[in-house]
Automatic annotation (TrEMBL):
Pfam families: FAA_hydrolase. It comes from Streptomyces corynorhini. The lineage of its organism: Bacteria, Bacillati, Actinomycetota, Actinomycetes, Kitasatosporales. Signal peptide: none annotated. The keyword Protein transport does not apply. GO terms for molecular function: 2-oxopent-4-enoate hydratase activity. Keywords: Lyase. This is 2-hydroxypenta-2,4-dienoate hydratase. One of its GO terms (cellular component) is cytoplasm. InterPro entries: Fumarylacetoacetase-like_C, Fumarylacetoacetase_C_sf, Hydratase-Decarb/MhpD_sf.
Length: 263
């Protein structure tokens, strides 16, 4: 498709926000525009995020998405994407969320970070990423789509803020020098029954590589990761349907557990 003008970008962002507000899904953007570029999709994302900020929301971080092979296979894509975390999307562990406020929610367990210093640049190393981390924690990301039936491409996901709906943060602990996040095994349970597992290495070989990838992507867009921001590295397993009247919990040997109750 030809590069859309600002009016198309704004109208598309408005349609996504309306779909979320009304909880009525719309056709994926690539149904009408199969050649939708990732650059254009990020423009739509930016317009929608800007609208949320003008309404009072505040940026608190970023997410890297579909960073594991399990998620790429589930979503039918072969590359990662990123989205923006806003303060009104983040909840502490133990929170209760109404299933009815979302449309087609799914949940995934992730290793996540809080940065102690800025991280920016095209070729950030894993060592630089590790040095920028102040705290590490387990998170449950609730993903949702404003599109019909999760029939989406990576461009659709990007336009839809990488499908991010809510983030539940576990207790944060310092990233110790001897902590091997690639080898950290996560177990996800629903109502006390283990339903999914995955190791940190499922995310680009090491969750810290999600930071290096994200720093590079944001650098190419003229920005970067900032001290104090939260960063989700991506799911270590395929996402799970999020059902009402359930409790989802993720645990691992070296990080405190995180829990979400759904009513």
């Amino acid at each position: 498709m030809d590069e859309p003008d600002d009016r198309w970008i704004d109208a598309t962002a408005s349609a996504l926000l309306a779909a979320e507000y009304e909880r009525v899904p719309i056709d994926a953007l690539t149904v009408r525009s199969p050649e939708l570029s990732l650059e254009t999709a990020y423009r739509v994302q930016g317009a929608a995020v800007a609208r949320r900020i003008s309404g009072g929301a505040r940026v608190v971080g970023h997410k890297a998405g579909v960073t594991s092979r399990a998620m790429q296979e589930q979503m039918g894509v072969d590359e990662s994407d990123s989205g923006v975390l806003l303060d009104n999307m983040v909840m502490p562990t133990g929170s209760t969320m109404a299933r009815s406020v979302l449309m087609q929610p799914r949940v995934e367990a992730e290793i996540a970070f809080r940065l102690g210093r800025d991280l920016a640049g095209e070729n950030v190393s894993v060592d630089e990423a590790r040095a920028a981390v102040e705290k590490v924690f387990l998170a449950l990301e609730v993903i949702d789509t404003r599109f019909t039936g999760w029939r989406i491409t990576v461009a659709d996901s990007i336009a839809d803020n990488a499908s991010c709906a809510r983030v539940v943060t576990g207790p944060m602990v310092p990233l110790g020098a001897d902590m091997d996040l690639a080898a950290e095994p996560l177990v996800v349970s629903v109502d006390g029954t283990a339903v999914a597992t995955g190791e940190g290495r499922a995310v680009l070989g090491d969750p810290l590589r999600a930071l290096t990838w994200l720093a590079g992507r944001l650098h190419r867009a003229g920005s970067g990761l900032r001290a104090g921001q939260l960063v989700l590295a991506g799911a270590v397993h395929a996402s799970l349907p999020l059902e009402a009247r359930s409790t989802v919990r993720a645990r691992s040997p070296h990080l405190p557990p995180v829990e979400l109750r759904v009513r």
